[in-house]
Design a protein that fits this description.
With about 260 residues, the protein is mainly beta. It is built from 3 helices and 12 strands, in the order βββαβββββαββββα. The longest helix has 10 residues. It is found in: Secreted.
Amino acid sequence: TGDTDSEANYGEFPWMVALMRREQVDFKVSLKLMECGGSIIHPQVILTAAHCVKGKKNLFVRAGEWDTKTDKEQYPTQDRDVKQVILHEQYYAGGLHNDVALLVLESPLKLNPVVGTICLPAQGENMNARNCVVTGWGKDEYGNEGKYQEILKKVEQPVVPRGPCQCELRKTRLGPRFKLHNSFLCAGGQVGKDACRGDGGGPLACPSKHDPDRYVQAGIVAWGIGCGTAVPAVYVNVAQFRTWIDDKLDFLNLV
């Protein structure tokens, strides 16, 4: 199943994870709340947006998820607690500049056909002229009470060059002097193709220029103006952070 109404197929995006938080309501009841999306870049490391995790406690990730209402998938989902959150040192919450974070998991995920890593672009790699895809559940609560998507959604998003993107953004409430920070990349801007559905922190994946059957992660869902309009959505430009990511993984001895 899948492939209807922008639904992803089971296992189509094995790098996609749900970033979740446990919230104790009282001594008996604990809720599992969907916070954001993320992507597997190493069996023990998740890439996500800093705004998703800053100041949050009791985080865990769920890998191998597809339909949040059922656990009848062929491979059981894998939950892992987040042991360490690494925020970018220059993260600026006011404008969401450098909105990137790494989550180190308590133990590595077991890779299988529906749980796998996504490749990262080279430092500074240009992503223009690629047709990419953003994925997410777009939900505010997990399970049957969830308000939005139960099955993982995918929305095609072409990368939009910086100049035209900044032009479109200046026509919005951001105003004519708005400058698009160099940590961002734009995609989308097709009316009705909705990037809202993609969760914050989730990946924008593009075909590799070396091998169109392989995906590289070009972006992380950061912010947007409105929904499904002609204004492109704004993503973290992952290629600007490849060296930073590599340095952190080196330091953790997770290469």
